[in-house]
């Protein structure tokens, strides 16, 4: 696949995703559609034949931006929520959901016509397969829309965020130069149950994308009791709870914790700190004890280590969606959309089969 100034050559992760989506293209809705980065990504996705992009925003403005940049809009759908034929349908559905929850909404159409809410409704009701948002909005806006409009997974106690990082140039960066990291964006101080759920759900995500048995590291400042702090004890308790869930659900996932980052990723450190660690592979999934640790690690790996980031994926919802930062690059937008599309394939294979 040829690269251009906006889109570098595909890496080990995205190359597989693009090939998969060529066989099973998905409809990806971009809630912040009035952005030249999104328009470029949409045109690229069409050229690659991996998705049908849907841009939310003012049609005339988006088409003018595309024309000024010399970008074709063939097969790129643009929807202005206030003018959409689906608006009244979504309004009625929102009113029904509110009544079911014992609430009354004074102006449901005003709520639904907000771009992020409309995009999330499209995903929830099958008008799109996945959502990407955040390039022109605050993270809280994206998460609120997704959590309000998209049905949660009942077994996940709280929605969280997961990142996928790719850095084949860095030492000890997972087994394949890919790391899955959570929670990097939502829960400030997860409790034991939430931390265990974060581990299991991110492990499932890694299993899907790596195509093999992943290893989860429940990170701490302590390794197997080297420090007896309450924080370390919480991580250990979450590890045991997650291990039990993995066992009960017959998941192909390995887990270790509480464990320091060097022992989780560097085999030399693991040989010193962990008994009989020689047969263990480096961790593929890093679960952080709190949001500060996760978010700081993410930014350092991205901006200092040069790791390519994708996401963050909004985990714990029944349909795939992602929140990207306002500083997002077009490469990250494209790769994140591809990840959301691949998650949509999984949804169609598993969740819809359960509903039938």
TrEMBL record:
The keyword Isomerase does not apply. It catalyses: acetyl-CoA + phosphate = acetyl phosphate + CoA. Keywords: Acyltransferase, Transferase. SUPFAM superfamilies: Isocitrate/Isopropylmalate dehydrogenase-like (SSF53659). Pfam families: PTA_PTB (PF01515). The keyword Acyltransferase applies. It comes from the Bacteria. Residues 14-339 form the Phosphate acetyl/butaryl transferase domain. Coiled coil: none annotated. GO terms for molecular function: phosphate acetyltransferase activity. Belongs to the phosphate acetyltransferase and butyryltransferase family. This is Phosphotransacetylase. It comes from Oceaniferula spumae.
């Amino acid at each position: 696949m040829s690269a251009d100034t906006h889109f570098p050559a595909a890496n080990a992760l995205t190359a597989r995703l693009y090939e998969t989506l060529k066989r099973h293209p998905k409809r990806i809705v971009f809630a912040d559609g009035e952005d030249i980065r999104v328009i470029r990504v949409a045109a690229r996705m069409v050229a690659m034949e991996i998705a049908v992009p849907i841009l939310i925003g003012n049609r005339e403005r988006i088409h003018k931006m595309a024309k000024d940049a010399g970008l074709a809009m063939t097969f790129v759908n643009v929807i202005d929520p206030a003018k959409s034929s689906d608006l009244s349908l979504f309004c009625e559905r929102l009113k029904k959901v509110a009544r079911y929850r014992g609430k009354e909404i004074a102006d449901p159409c005003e709520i639904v016509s907000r771009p992020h809410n409309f995009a999330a409704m499209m995903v929830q009701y099958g008008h799109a397969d996945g959502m990407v948002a955040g390039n022109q909005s605050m993270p809280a806006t994206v998460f609120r829309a997704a959590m309000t409009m998209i049905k949660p997974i009942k077994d996940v106690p709280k929605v969280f965020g997961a990142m996928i990082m790719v850095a084949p140039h860095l030492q000890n960066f997972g087994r394949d130069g890919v790391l899955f990291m959570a929670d990097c964006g939502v829960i400030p101080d997860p409790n034991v149950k939430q931390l265990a759920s974060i581990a299991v759900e991110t492990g499932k995500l890694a299993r899907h994308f790596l195509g093999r048995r992943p290893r989860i590291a429940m990170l701490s400042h302590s390794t197997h009791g080297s420090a007896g702090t309450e924080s370390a004890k919480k991580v250990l308790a979450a590890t045991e709870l997650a291990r039990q869930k993995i066992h009960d659900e017959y998941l192909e996932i390995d887990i270790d914790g509480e464990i320091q980052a060097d022992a989780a990723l560097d085999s030399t450190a693991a040989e010193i700190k962990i008994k009989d660690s020689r047969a263990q592979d480096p961790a593929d999934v890093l679960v952080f004890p709190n949001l500060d640790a996760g978010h700081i690690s993410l930014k350092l790996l991205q901006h200092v280590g040069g790791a390519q980031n994708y996401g963050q994926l909004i985990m714990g919802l029944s349909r795939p969606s992602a929140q990207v930062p306002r500083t997002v690059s077009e490469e990250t937008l494209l790769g994140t959309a591809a990840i959301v599309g691949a998650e949509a394939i999984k949804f169609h294979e598993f969740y819809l089969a359960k509903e039938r």
